[in-house]
Amino acid sequence: xxxxxKAAGKGRAPAKRKLAEKFPAGEVLTDTGKKTxxxxxxxxxxxxxxxxxxxxxxxxxxxxxxxxVIKVEPSENGPLFSELKFYMRAAKPDxxxxxxxxxxxxxxxxxxxxxxxxHEKDGKKYRFMVIxxxxxxxxxxxxxxxxxFPRKLVLQLGLRVLDILEYIHDHEYVHADIKASNLMLSxxxxxxxxxxxxxxxxxxxxxxxxxxxxxxxxxxxxxTIEFTSIDAHKGASACRxxxxxxxxxxxxxxxxxxxxxxxxxxxxLYVRDCKIRSQENISEFMDECxxxxxxxxxxxxxxxxxxxxxxxxxxxxxxxxxxxxxGLKAIKAEDDFKLDFSPxxxxxxxxxxxxxxxxxxxxxxxxxxxxxxVKKKRVAKKPEVNxxxxxxxxxxxxxxxxxxxxxxxxxxxxxxEPDSQMSPxxxxxxxxxxxxxxx
Length: 439
Fold this sequence. Notes:
The chain is of the alpha+beta class. About 25% of the residues lie in helices and about 15% in strands. The strands form 6 sheets. The chain has a 6-stranded antiparallel beta sheet with strand order 1-2-3-4-6-5, covered by helices on one side. It has a 3-stranded antiparallel beta sheet with strand order 7-9-10. A two-stranded antiparallel sheet has the order 8-11. Helix 9 (about 295-305) packs antiparallel against helix 10.
């Protein structure tokens, strides 16, 4: 779960991060609160290091029933730094417990933070963090269900994620990377779901003051390309409406199987433009995703409510929850807090696709926590000249090609900018002349 790294100089490849050496079972780590933790077997491996089962230090060895995991990385790498800041500020057990009590929630899907610190071994220093152990992720469940979740389940998941987002938003953070592989079931209770991977979490309102809208061309398309918000596509920092927009795309995909722009995820501008058009005419977007018989009116209403939000505006979480509950009522169901992952009727698993991610700070291999894919390796950009992609020079062939082969293809016409984009203060029809994310 990498944080934002410092940009490398021009023409330089990002520095390779060192991997943490494997520690033997029984290794004891001491956190900043002087609490000791004992490592068990590793349960995941990523670009930054290993993730181990763990328990509070005792004479007993750490078994398969361990309730904690510890992430370990070389201290000079720093990929846990951003995530640590979120956990230390917003995921302490007493904060979560008090919120659950005051909001009368049966559970809240934010992993609890139990400690962190530095560990030294053989002259090398390592950073570590202790959090709750979780189970399988929803992406695995989605594939097992033929890439379609039942409508009741989608609405229940939406309600659970809304509870999570209201909590982290109230604690000055946005997540910015909501998706099935970042939603995990509890290790002990398959009816509880948790939002993980706060490597892209952003403190949008330090000391309670929301930051102003500002586009940065260097940050265009941050997040997971098929779900990320229009704000992110334009290079603006994530805000509360960004998280809710991402959630809406997730719910549509979970219900219909595939978003309309998933055929060209390698083209970030195409994906951005498709999303902008979907926001301009949400009804048409829903018609593209569903048949008239299957069209979920509650998801259209949810998206319309999110579209109307300004960049700094606080959402009405209760109104959004009421929209999803109305959807449950329309199918004669209720939120019984039981998550049924039985395949939806007629669901057929399509060919798997590679998920493209644009994250300028990410140069790690996939991380896994009990099987959860977290990050992808960064792909180097092509050089640009006057804002245009410059293709590498081709070698001149020694023999002339046949005329039918040597014909030059006509250069593709540039894609016109859409007429309407999500603005800092909500939807508007004025034309934006931004190029990628120029302000």
